[in-house]
């Protein structure tokens, strides 16, 4: 136990110094303390457009638009144009509205994460954030399906394939472990829900680390020739629809080098819980089982050369026994 705790302490030390790049999320933004005004932010290539829903000096609703090239991945500035003589909702189109250049003044934005930023609106500093109107609290917003790309390019030969993919489905909040959500890596991603086979062989657990503002996720990757579980550990900064961070393997207390990761939400919480909701229809029964292989066997060969895998272990009667235990040990170090 002490050896494992020291390994996780080293893991967290290396994770803690990470200040990776991020991409601000497109979507609805607001300041919760200034309800009634909001912003739509859209990023395409290196150009960002901001639509401000506000009011004129008489209190009549109005909107303003600003667009410009985004600086790096975190700074933006533009003038805000207004409009008049436009088409009403019940009127026929009669041509473009008249643009009122600079009618809304100026704005600049400095993004501090995928979902938070400081807005300077005509000299007034306003903290803004993504408008979370349906995802729930910090734990609930992670529920759903995530597709992940892992970048092994610093660790592989120039002619080797540098990228690997992963899919995790996080489908519920733990009823027994505080600050923990649970799920699986699906053996077949076309299933909407985790199957009994997935829970037994590739279960997952994660939670929010308040001290770092990140999510730590543990996925059971496989069982090695000695019957020991091999885990894939993620440490990510998450928005509502994407996350960025790092990952590494843990096998019998041996930690692999760190690789960078980026994940995107590919299905909703409702979809992974019921088979209905935003995504495609579930074509198969959720109780089906099938063969599994170590999908990261080649990745582990790169990151942990001593890894020797024998395929999935014996299905457990309880849900997430070893993964939840691993997660609790990780949180003991983090907290």
What distance lies between the first and last C-alpha atoms, to the nearest angstrom?
Answer: 17 Å
- How is the main sheet built? 8 strands, antiparallel
Number of helices: 5
Give the low-confidence spans: 1-14, 284-295, 304-319
Shape: elongated
Helix content: 10-25%
Rg for CA atoms: 23 Å
Q: Note the run of SSEs as H and E.
A: HEEEEEEEEEEEHEEEEEEHHH
Q: What is the total tally of β strands? A: 17
- SS-based structural class? mainly beta
Mean pLDDT across every amino acid position: 82
Indicate the proportion of strand residues. 35-45%
Descriptive account of the structure:
By secondary structure, the chain is mostly beta strands. The protein contains five helices and 17 strands. Strands 4-3-2-1-8-7-6-5 form an eight-stranded antiparallel β-sheet, with no helix packed on it. An eight-stranded antiparallel β-barrel has the order 9-10-11-12-13-14-15-17. Strand 2 and strand 3 form a beta hairpin.
Based on the model shown, name its key terms.
335 residues; mainly beta; 8-stranded antiparallel sheet; 5 helices; elongated; disordered N terminus
What would a concise description of this structure say?
The chain has helices at residues 2-16, 196-201, 269-274, 297-303, 321-334, and strands at 27-30, 38-44, 47-55, 61-69, 75-84, 98-111, 116-121, 124-130, 144-151, 163-173, 181-184, 203-209, 214-223, 229-238, 242-251, 254-255, 259-267. Strand 2 and strand 3 (47-55) form a beta hairpin.
């Amino acid at each position: 136990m002490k050896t494992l705790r020291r390994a996780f302490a080293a893991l967290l030390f290396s994770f803690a110094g990470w200040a990776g790049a991020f991409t601000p999320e497109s979507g609805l933004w607001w300041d919760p303390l200034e309800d009634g005004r909001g912003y739509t932010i859209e990023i395409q290539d290196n150009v960002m457009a901001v639509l401000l829903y506000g009011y004129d000096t008489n209190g009549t609703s109005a909107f303003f638009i600003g667009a410009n090239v985004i600086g790096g991945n975190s700074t933006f500035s533009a003038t805000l144009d207004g409009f008049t003589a436009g088409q009403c909702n019940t009127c026929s189109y009669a041509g473009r509205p008249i643009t009122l250049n600079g009618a809304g003044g100026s704005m600049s934005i400095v993004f501090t994460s995928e979902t938070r930023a400081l807005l300077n609106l005509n000299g007034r500093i306003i903290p803004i954030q993504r408008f979370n109107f349906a995802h729930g609290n910090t734990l609930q917003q992670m529920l759903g399906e995530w597709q992940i790309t892992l970048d092994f390019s610093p660790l592989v030969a120039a002619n080797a394939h540098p990228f690997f993919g992963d899919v995790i489905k996080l489908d519920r909040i733990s009823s027994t472990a505080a600050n923990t959500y649970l799920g699986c890596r699906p053996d077949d991603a076309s299933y909407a829900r985790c199957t009994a086979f997935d829970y037994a062989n590739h279960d997952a657990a994660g939670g929010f680390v308040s001290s770092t503002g990140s999510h730590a996720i543990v996925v059971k990757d496989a069982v090695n020739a000695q019957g020991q579980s091999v885990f894939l550990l993620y440490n990510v900064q998450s928005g509502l629809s994407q996350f960025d961070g790092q990952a590494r393997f843990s096998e019998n207390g041996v930690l692999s080098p760190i690789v960078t990761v980026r994940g995107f939400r590919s299905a909703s919480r409702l979809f992974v819980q019921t088979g209905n909701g935003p995504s495609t229809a579930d074509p198969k029964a959720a109780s089906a089982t099938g063969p599994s292989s170590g999908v990261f066997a080649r990745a582990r060969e790169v990151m942990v050369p001593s890894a020797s895998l024998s395929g999935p272990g014996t299905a457990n009667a309880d849900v997430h026994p070893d993964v939840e235990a691993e997660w609790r040990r990780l949180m003991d170090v983090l907290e």
